[in-house]
Amino acid sequence: MKKTALSFILMLSAVSLFAQENGVEMADKLRASGKIYVVVAVMLLLFTAFILYLFSIDKRLKKVEKGN
Asked: Mean pLDDT in runs of 10 for the chain (68 residues)?
């Protein structure tokens, strides 16, 4: 059983090594055209909005807990 598990783990690691040869074409194209900054800005905006939303929900929950 140990030999089977070890050989399976080794095969999975070999597969991941073959998969690493390909580059990420979309990221390279976006970086070359300068659009990567737009993608990063949108992701940062969404992350900030999500964090602010979570803090507002937390404040509301604290008010409800104090009221009860």
From this structure: 80 66 75 89 98 97 89
Domain extent for 19: 2-67
Token couple for 66: 């104090």
Q: Would the pTM count as exceeding 0.85?
A: no
Which two structure tokens, joined as six digits, stand for 9? Answer: 């783990």
Secondary structure of residue 24 in the 3-state scheme: coil
Q: How far is CA 24 from the centre of its chain?
A: 16
Domain count, the chain: 1
DSSP string covering 1-68, please? -HHHHHHHHHHHHHHHHHHTTS--HHHHHHHHHTTHHHHHHHHHHHHHHHHHHHHHHHHHHHHHHHH-
Q: Cβ(39)–Cβ(30) under 8 Å?
A: yes
**Cα(45)–Cα(2) distance, integer angstroms:** 49
